[in-house]
């Protein structure tokens, strides 16, 4: 994508079953696709952390943001896909943003 990306994994040896690993990969992939298509970002940070029996993936960009209307739109298939993927693992997703500012996607699921 040509956008510098910083990755942090804590701890470095996280063990995740195949289904959760695939879901997290697809969520990250969709988040990065949305950033490259829409955000006009110049920097991305990604973190994957395990704590207290949960795993959390956080993707943040420094792009132009997204409106509440866009977040809740029936045509935002990528965001809908992220919500559906995390829901099947009884996880939670939080997307925070405002126009002209960065966007952060955080998903958290039990291991």
What is shown here, in short?
This protein has 111 residues and is of the alpha+beta class. 34% of the residues lie in helices and 32% in strands. The protein has a single domain (5-110), classed as Heat Shock Protein 90, CATH 3.30.565.10.
Q: Which key terms come to mind for this protein?
A:
5 strands; 111 residues; alpha+beta; Heat Shock Protein 90
Within CATH, the superfamily carries the name: Histidine kinase-like ATPase, C-terminal domain
Main β sheet profile: 5 strands, mixed
Q: Look up the CATH topology.
A: Heat Shock Protein 90
Task: Give the radius of gyration.
Answer: 14 Å
Structural class: alpha+beta
Q: What is the residue-mean pLDDT, rounded to a whole number?
A: 91
Overall geometry comes to: globular
**Beta strand %:** 25-35%
- What is the quaternary state of this protein? single chain
> Helical proportion?
25-40%
CATH architecture: 2-Layer Sandwich
Describe this structure in words.
It is built from 3 helices and 5 strands. The N and C termini lie far apart (31 Å). The protein has a single domain, classed as Histidine kinase-like ATPase, C-terminal domain (Heat Shock Protein 90, 2-Layer Sandwich), CATH 3.30.565.10. The mean pLDDT is 91. The chain is 34% helix and 32% strand. The chain has a 5-stranded mixed beta sheet, with helices on one face. The protein is an alpha+beta fold.
């Amino acid at each position: 994508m040509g956008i510098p990306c910083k990755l942090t994994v804590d701890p470095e040896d996280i063990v995740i079953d195949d289904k959760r690993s695939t879901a997290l990969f697809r969520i990250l992939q969709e988040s990065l696709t949305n950033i490259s298509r829409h955000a006009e970002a110049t920097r991305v940070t990604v973190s994957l952390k395990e704590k207290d029996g949960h795993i959390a993936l956080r993707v943040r960009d420094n792009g132009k943001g997204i409106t509440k209307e866009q977040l809740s739109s029936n045509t935002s298939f990528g965001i809908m896909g992220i919500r559906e993927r995390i829901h099947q693992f009884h996880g939670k997703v939080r997307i925070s943003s405002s126009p002209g500012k960065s966007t952060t996607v955080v998903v958290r699921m039990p291991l």
